[in-house]
Amino acid sequence: MMAGPDRVVIVGESVAGITAARELRTRGYTGRLVVLGNDPHGSYARPALSKSVLKDLTVDISAPVAYDDLDLNVVRRAATHLDLAERKVSTEDGDAHPFDAAIIATGATPRRLAEPSQRGELVLRTLDDAQALHRRLDEATSTIVIGAGFLGMEVPSACASKGVDVTVVDVVPPLRRLFGPFLSWHVARLATAHGVRYVKASGSVRLLGQPVAGIILDGGATLTADVVVSCVGDVPAAAWLGGTGIADQLGVPVDSRCATPIPGVFAAGDVTYLRSGGYLPNPTTTVARRRPFWCNAVAQGKVVAASVLGEPADTVPFDDYFWTELFGVHVKVAGPLLLDGDPGQVDGSIEDGDALLRWDHPDGRVTAVAFGRRIAVSRLRALASSTAD
């Protein structure tokens, strides 16, 4: 007898959605499995867009999430409505897909700065975005990047590798919000060494031109460039859930099982946040936050599959690991952010791009950072799982 619901619909051909599909099959699920996605390229590894595709359009980014062996019914149509009474998902072509269990994995969309009628704003979220930006950079001599987060520093790294002049604009120094002052300073030093200019904004930034050809700073000063890229975060792709009561401005709240309050409806990946009273990485924390990182999406995809089948998960719906590549230096992080103050331990030389650093947090948790140092992810995770002295 087959375990689990007869019909599972996964809304979102994302890493969380495809991970959930693979985990369902791995756990022996043999029922009907429908995946709804609206990207014409299917599922692919988004981290590679900013780290690899901007430099080389021939990079294959589909292998990490391939699913030809999973017996899926893949429908490339955007979901438009979730009918909880009828237990079905409608798509833009008017079709309806009935379900016994649904997994919401629609991810996120880029936050934009352009006015409704303003053309030419560039963002980076999809393969089409990356290909378009790559082509523009091939023809450009100057670029403005708005936002100095992870994406906002990976794009300048690609620009520098192409010999394109780049200016980064933000209200705080590069990666300061998550990396804290110590690592932020070293990232800024690395960027400056590669010719990147940083402009500190005092407030909001507006896009200039039609099409966009620059920015207007809060005081009225303007900067122009051949290419302007907005890297100002993302928003959960949850508008299609309007009227269901499942989503709010933060996305879809889920508990430790990746379950929503609606029986049989689950969610995973960038569209979600872990709600208070469910699972949070620090039991004393009450602030709910989205954590749109690749490893979190993978972890939640595995958890949600187990929950759909009514089985215990082999992991928790949170993974404190991510990596970035900045100006030729790989930075791997295991453990919670923000990193306040200087590291408690430093092995090697961060100036030379070969260091292993450790932060001990007041709550007893540990964050380990490999700044250019080659180290197995398993070892870095082991260092982060140790207890602060």
From TrEMBL:
Keyword vocabulary terms for this entry: FAD, Flavoprotein, Oxidoreductase
Molecular-function annotations in GO: oxidoreductase activity, acting on NAD(P)H
Cofactor dependence: FAD
Pfam families attached to this UniProt entry: Pyr_redox_2
Domain called FAD/NAD(P)-binding: residue spans: 7-301
Source domain of life: Bacteria
A single GO cellular-component term on record: cytoplasm
PANTHER family per the UniProt record, alphabetical: APOPTOSIS-INDUCING FACTOR 1, RIESKE DOMAIN-CONTAINING PROTEIN-RELATED
Name of the protein: Ferredoxin reductase
Organism expressing this protein natively: Micromonospora globispora
